[in-house]
Amino acid sequence: MVIVSLTTDWGNKGLYSGLFKAKLVNKLPGAQIIDISHEILPYNINEGAFALRSSYRHFPVGSIHVVSLASMTVADKAKNREYICFEHEGHYFIGPNNGLWDMVFDDAEFAVYTIAAQHPDVQSFAEADACIDAVLQLSQGKALTAIGTPATRERGRGVGQPEIRGNQIVGSFLDFDSYGNGITNITKAHFEAVGKGRMFTIMVGGQILQTDTISTDYTNVPEKIIALFNSARFLEIAMPYFPLRNFLHDTNTAKVLITFYDSEAQKTNFKLI
Asked: In angstroms, what CA-CA distances link 32 with 21, 35, 48?
């Protein structure tokens, strides 16, 4: 059975996602299609890249992941509609050659291949036909070299790393989910490497929102904010029964400050400067 995931900004109200699936199962009956999301904001490759980064490892090795995101992220406008396919960590990926892959895989290196629809007369939604043709050939066991031609991968920016300041970590928000919870760029590895098991305080929006607890779920938390590590091992910040996103003045510049303490007295006397 062939497993195909979809991450797009097509939306669920239009015809694109249904049309793509109909074309795919017509050519590949029995394909299992799993929607990661069709609600990525148009032109927001940050959101799309984070959705894929957080989910693809949960699929079986050999799965095929299709990404379609409208964007103008590289100077060469034609590159934004150039679609590539490649293999990484045992998974196959098909999507635009627009620099988004550095946000998914950081600095990982892999060979990419340009794909084209086998129906050059099709102009509208042509990328769908190109992707479907590539999925079909991958399902038949064809090598990437037989599916596309070697290409140069357009480079983009990776996920921004948090700033380490001695006993502090200063992070920012990568994304906000449908509940308005914020996913930060602080990973569990960052937290453990700097914290070394010490007590801490997590602050969002100065000293207005803070907690000194890492929760395991979203319930029974007395603090104004909830901090937990999600399934992708990124620190997530939430507010009980209220979207954190709506509380923040500017989600693009909002910071998350984690301070670690060597003693209770140091924690008690700490003042935010």
From this structure: 10, 10, 21
Q: What is the CA radius of gyration of the chain?
A: 21
Domains belonging to the chain, first-starting first, are: 3-151 (3.40.50.10790), 163-268 (2.40.30.90)
Residue 164's SS3 state is strand
Number of Cβ within a 10 Å radius of residue 22? 11
b/e map 225-253, b = 16+ CB within 10 Å? bbbbbeebebbbbbbeeebbbebbeebee
pTM over 0.70: yes
Q: Are 95 and 67 in contact (CB under 8 A)?
A: yes
Alpha carbon distance 207, 211 (integer Å): 10
Count CA atoms within 13 Å of residue 108 on its CB side.
16
pLDDT digits (tens, 9 = 90+) for 204-254: 976 678 899 999 888 766 678 999 998 888 999 999 888 999 988 888 788
The answer to whether the CB of 235 falls within 8 A of the CB of 187 is yes
Residue 270 parent element (H or E)? none
Q: First CA to last CA across the chain, in angstroms?
A: 58
DSSP 152: P
What does each C-alpha distance from 21 to 55, 131, 205, 250 come to in angstroms?
A: 20, 11, 43, 37
